[in-house]
Design brief:
Elements: H1 18-34, E1 39-44, E2 49-53, E3 55-57, E4 60-62, H2 64-74, E5 80-86, H3 94-104, E6 109-113, E7 119-124
Length: 126
Amino acid sequence: MTQSSESQGPGAPAEPGPEDRKIITLARSARARNGVAEGAAVRDETGRTYVAGTVALPSLELSALRTAVAMAVASGARSLEAAAVVGEAESVPAEDRAAVRDLGGPDTPVLLAGPDGRLVSTVPAG
């Protein structure tokens, strides 16, 4: 099972476990490397990770998280254990949580971290 953090009281997220810290770090790296608004990473049922940045083309716009989920699906992932998004947002949009829920189920944790990698919140996909 996943080592995701859960909130400890109002607005105080727990320190993420090592596997969740890894996907936050990967998401943060994708954001910095590509100079995009968001970076995201997901971990599938086998522990493989998929990392992506925001896609902003004239004909195609995808959030980093939806792109990472699409990469996991295209690579044969059957489920997700956890997802992470790094950026300036204060919450994870419903459309992004829906993509995680479609592959991982409603209880899949979605971690939101700021640009510095510090965990802001953890919410279930559903």
